[in-house]
Each structure stands twice: as C-alpha cells, then as structure tokens.
Input
Amino acid sequence: EAEKAAAAKEADAEEEREVEKAAAVEEADAEEEEREAEKAAAAKEADAEEEREVEKAAAVEEADAEEEEREAEKAAAVEEADAEEEREAEKAAAVEEADAEEEEREAEKAAAVEEADAEEEREAEKAAAVEEADAEEEREAE
Output
C-alpha cells in the first residue's frame, strides 16, 4: 500500500511536472508570438516611414520642377521685354534718322530758294541798270 501510494505520488508529481512543462512551453510560445507581432508592427511602421519619405522626396522634386518652370518663364518674359525694348530703340533711331534727313532736305530747299531769290534780285538790278543806261542814252540823244 505504501509503495502504491508512493508510486501514485510520484505519478502525480510527474503529471505536475508535465503540466508545468506544458505551461512553460505555452508561455514561451506566447512570448515568441508577441515578439513576432512586435517585429511585424515595427516592419510595417518602417515601411510606412519609407513611404512617407518617398512621398516627401516626390513633393520636393515636384516643387523644384515648378520653381524651375517659373524661373524659365520669368527669364523668357525678361528676354521678350529686352527684345521689345531693342525694337523700340531701333524704331526711335529710324524716326530720328528720317527726321534728320527731312531737316537736311528742307535746309537744302531753303538754300535753293534763297539762291533763286538772290539771282532774281541780281537780274532785277541788271534790268534796272540797263533801263537807267537806256534812259541816259536817250537823254544824251535829246
């Protein structure tokens, strides 16, 4: 009876050890599972962070491209304004030249008119002198 009781006690102790071992295994599994879940969450967070970085980089690139485009448009506008200014300057120079030529022609015309007037005056003086000479001759004849 004592041996049977001892054997039963040993069997109970063995069973208790098995139960403890099973509990320890279960706990270890639960901890492993938790670590895996944490690792997966960390990986997911890292992926999300990477995605945000990529989006940020894309936004920066887009902003740079837009800025570059605006600069190019500004430069083109400045170039166009410069070209317009140059055309205006050329036009002004052409007008000035035409005015100078017109003034020169007017001056030449005025000089020619003055010369013609002087010639006419000389002719009139000559005619008067001839008339005076004729009158003098007529008086001499009388």
Observations:
- Residues 2-141 form the longest helix (140 residues).
- The radius of gyration is 61 Å.
- The mean pLDDT is 97.
- The chain has one helix and no strands.
